[in-house]
What we know:
Elements: E1 2-4, E2 12-14, E3 20-21, H1 31-34, E4 38-40, H2 46-50, E5 55-59, E6 64-69, E7 80-81, E8 84-85, H3 93-96, E9 100-107, E10 110-111, E11 116-120, E12 129-130, H4 140-168, E13 172-180, E14 189-198, H5 200-203, H6 208-216, H7 219-229, H8 233-246
Amino acid sequence: MQISAPFGYKQVVPFQKTHKVRLLAPGEAPEFVRQGGAIPISNSEFVPAGRHYPIVFIGDGKSYSAVAVVGMTTKENLFVNDGHWAGDVYMPAYARRYPFCMARVNVNQVEQKNRLICVEQSSIDEGGEALFDASGEPTAKWQEFERLLSEYEADLERMREMCAILADYGLLEPFTMEAKLKPEKGGAELKLGGMHRIAEKNIENLNAAQLKNLVRLGIMARIYVHLLSLEQFGRLLDRKAAQAKAS
């Protein structure tokens, strides 16, 4: 059996009731998102994420996923300070679920349909927190984690389906964000590529059945949230300038 760790995780192992786990403090950001310019989001996160971050799509031309852009370079997160996520913005579930995850499992090189609840191996610590009591019953904290993992995995599947439809309908186009800070804000030239967005002009070319499908599945609403969220690049630039000035 081979277990594939999700992006950002180092080595995960199946979670067991006997494990004691070193959990993150409230608001604490996992190490891998502290210096990452984007973080995956799921289907139901579009509205809360879109209030604070630009939402874009990344992919290889065949499959795509949605991410919230959190930095103007691939190795910065403008919403993390001293290891903690900014308290006034939405923290994506991908970070909140750490150190747990639902991992892909391959048996004899065949990917299994069901995911396995795993934990980052380095977080297993005898000085950590027990998530099951002596009788093997789950604690309230584990029930909360388990619910988050289950709901998030189902929501990610809905996101994969949405991205597949957007690609199939030819609605995604590559774009690059280029900007130059004002002289009083440092004057730096910034360029961020490798992203895709919805091509509004292509929506006009869809037939009635395709448009109806987008509305029926709730995808059209998310298209508008995505397009509006692109204005949040201005917020990223302001945070970038503020941090540069502070340093």
